[in-house]
């Protein structure tokens, strides 16, 4: 089964990451999945391995801990001897205004959305260079909040950073003569666990998701499948997706 391509996905225990895992399993990838919630990952892995006859490696990783990220990449190298795709999906935000927000919540947002994304990218590029002849594809889940500032706080700043990192990495890879591609998908409202965590309230999350038909995780997985499915000479840079009725 090692002749299948290998995709690593962060934040596969929920929402968009879980849908991307199922999408890439259906497209024939072996998977390396991480998040903190071990049980959720194990259940997803069992389902996908059975349904698609693929290999799935899962590891409980707190992306705020660099040592845990490095250990996940060691496990990927040991199990698969290579990596074709990294999807930097894990992310979060908190409604914590800049004039009175909590420092630790700002820090967690930047640690997961920005620093962990950079560490994972660096480690994935190492594997793609070591085993893959400098080929592969890295995909960031950004946000429409990386294209305009819908509300104050650290979340939008972190997603502007992701947008800058996408372009920075593209330039660096081209300067290096690498064949590795970098893409981003930037969604508006998607119905996941995100809004409850962001607002601190299930009720407020329901209000967001019930105002009009919002995007579903599968809509984002479809865009990821499209970006990854293009021939080697096509570099999809960023796909912006909004629910049709979202005006902001
Ligand atoms: N939902 C939206 O409206 C929306 C819109 C635009 C962009 N996005 C982006 O989409 C991505 C996925 O979010 P989602 O909507 O699917 O939200 P979600 O349902 O809350 O999923 C977030 C995922 O990130 C993981 N994660 C969070 N902190 C982590 C940590 N410290 N270590 C390891 N994993 C961590 C979670 O796993 P554990 O809790 O198990 O660790 C979970 O799997 C994020 O980058 C988000 O910014 C979402």
TrEMBL record:
Alphabetical list of PANTHER family matching this protein: DEHYDROGENASE/REDUCTASE SDR FAMILY MEMBER 11, DEHYDROGENASE_REDUCTASE SDR FAMILY MEMBER 11
**Upper classification of the organism:** Bacteria, Bacillati, Cyanobacteriota, Cyanophyceae, Nodosilineales
Pfam families hit by this protein: adh_short
Tell me which UniProt keywords the record has, alphabetically. Oxidoreductase
Family named by the database record: Belongs to the short-chain dehydrogenases/reductases (SDR) family.
Quote the InterPro entries the UniProt record gives: NAD(P)-bd_dom_sf (IPR036291), SDR_fam (IPR002347)
Organism listed in the record: Leptothoe kymatousa TAU-MAC 1615
Tell me which domain of life the UniProt entry assigns to the organism this sequence originates from: Bacteria
State what protein this is by name. SDR family NAD(P)-dependent oxidoreductase
């Amino acid at each position: 089964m090692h002749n299948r391509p290998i995709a690593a996905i962060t934040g596969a225990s929920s929402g968009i990451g879980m849908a991307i895992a199922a999408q890439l399993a259906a497209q024939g990838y072996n998977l390396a999945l991480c998040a903190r919630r071990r049980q959720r990952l194990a259940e997803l892995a069992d389902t996908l391995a059975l349904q698609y006859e693929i290999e799935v490696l899962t590891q409980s990783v707190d992306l705020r801990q660099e040592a845990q990220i490095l250990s996940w990449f060691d496990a990927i190298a040991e199990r698969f001897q290579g990596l074709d795709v990294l999807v930097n999906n894990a992310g979060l935000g908190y409604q914590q205004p800049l004039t009175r927000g909590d420092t630790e919540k700002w820090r967690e947002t930047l640690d997961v959305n920005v620093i962990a994304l950079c560490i994972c990218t660096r480690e994935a590029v190492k594997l793609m260079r070591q085993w893959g002849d400098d080929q592969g594809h890295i995909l960031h889940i950004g946000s429409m909040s990386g294209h305009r500032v819908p509300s104050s706080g650290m979340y939008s700043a972190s997603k502007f950073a992701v947008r800058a990192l996408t372009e920075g990495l593209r330039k660096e890879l081209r300067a290096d003569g690498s064949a590795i591609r970098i893409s981003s998908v930037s969604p508006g409202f998607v119905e996941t666990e995100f809004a409850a965590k962001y607002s601190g309230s299930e009720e407020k999350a329901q209000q967001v998701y019930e105002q009009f038909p919002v995007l579903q995780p599968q809509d984002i997985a479809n865009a990821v499948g499209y970006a990854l499915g293009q021939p080697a000479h096509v570099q999809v840079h960023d796909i912006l997706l909004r629910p049709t009725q979202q005006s902001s």
